[in-house]
Amino acid sequence: MYTSPGKMRETMPQTPIFSSMLGSSCSGQVQPDMGERCVDPVYQDGNLVSGSLEALIERLVPTMDYYPDRTYIFTFLLSSRVFIHPHELLAKVGQICIKQKQQLETGTEAEKENGTVKKIISQMTQNLLMALSARSQYQEIREKFRQPVTDKGTILKTKPQSTQKDILSVCCDPLVLAQQLTYIELERVSNIYPEDLMQIVSHMDSLDNHKCRGDVTKTYNLEAYDNWFNCLSMLVATEICRVVKKKQRTRMVEFFIDVARECFNIGNFNSMMAIISGMNLSPVARLKKTWSKVKTAKFDVLEHHMDPSSNFCNYRTALQGAAQRSQTANSNREKIVIPVFNLFIKDIYFLHKIHTNRLPNGQINFKKFWEISRQINDFLTWKQVECPFEKDKKIQSYLLTAPIYSEEALFIASFESEGPENHMEKDSWKTLRTTLLNRA
Hints:
Layout: H1 5-11, H2 18-21, E1 42-44, E2 47-51, H3 53-58, H4 70-80, H5 86-104, H6 108-145, H7 167-170, H8 174-189, H9 194-207, H10 220-241, H11 246-266, H12 269-279, H13 282-285, H14 288-291, H15 297-305, H16 309-328, H17 332-335, H18 341-354, E3 364-365, H19 366-383, H20 393-401, H21 407-417, H22 423-439
Antiparallel strand pairs: 1-2, 2-3
Helix pairs in contact: 4-19, 5-6, 8-11, 10-11, 10-12, 10-21, 11-12
């Protein structure tokens, strides 16, 4: 009697899913107790924790009484590039499939079918190599045309005109601006793929001179997203520092505090952190006369959420709350979770650095890759949320193209608004003025 693949999966033994494999974090290096005999692969409490590359590849291929769970397939395909090139993996999987077919069938027809399968696998391998090559070339071309995110502004020689366009003239509603920032975040997050995130592991292995078999390519999508964070931080600082009048400057600071607060409520932690970072830059933080007029209670709450102590414990608690809300949400508005990307990348970095790829017996430390893939899977779930906010081209155009001052220009604008108050600031201001005169 014929059984559909879906029904077969329900009855066949499968590799455990994430929830049964892991808690909230990886507790340490896996040191399986194998006794006198080396078992391959190794299970602990019914969970796969390590194995040789060959054994793990075999677990990828279904048999008559086994079907790999999709979380295993995802984890292995994601982590395998650290040890083997994708086209080599495809070839090995093909060989296993042909071998299984030979064991089940005999005769001329079986040999003919095997020949056909080999041709198909060969063609798939060629297509894969062409796709990988094309992507590499595309990234190289994009790198040549990629605009550096440095100074979009010029060094100020005079104060800007009070009539100069600013963010408040484009959008004076903190909630609307937070929504447009979220739109941009989700749009940029959509360009990040699992293989981009795994390049962190592969690229670091290459830098450390480890024997890494992964495709070591530059992580353009990650860099672009990181550049967006830096741009937003500098834009916030620019908008504040270039305002001439203290009253208006105070209003600008309070506006961005409200925007950051709305970002937090939405679940857009990345924009929130970028805004806070911009207001904490020295040219802004030193404006004591301005800050003395600001109602800082809201800002104090935001900084509490982003307190770096205890490995950003407060932020992680808020992120976990947003993630739980997303799981039970009925609307896309409640499903939004945009983590602080810099911290997300650091978590993967430290997971990779503190847990070895291989155990002392040479087997792959698969428990490590379960945890890395679990975090990446969470990120993929969040990035698939459709933005519930309509795009405002005018606001987004300003956010993405407005002039951004360099650090030097920010300090000049800051000192022109509120003069230096101590010897260190006076020396800095003197050096900046000398630099301006030399350039004139």
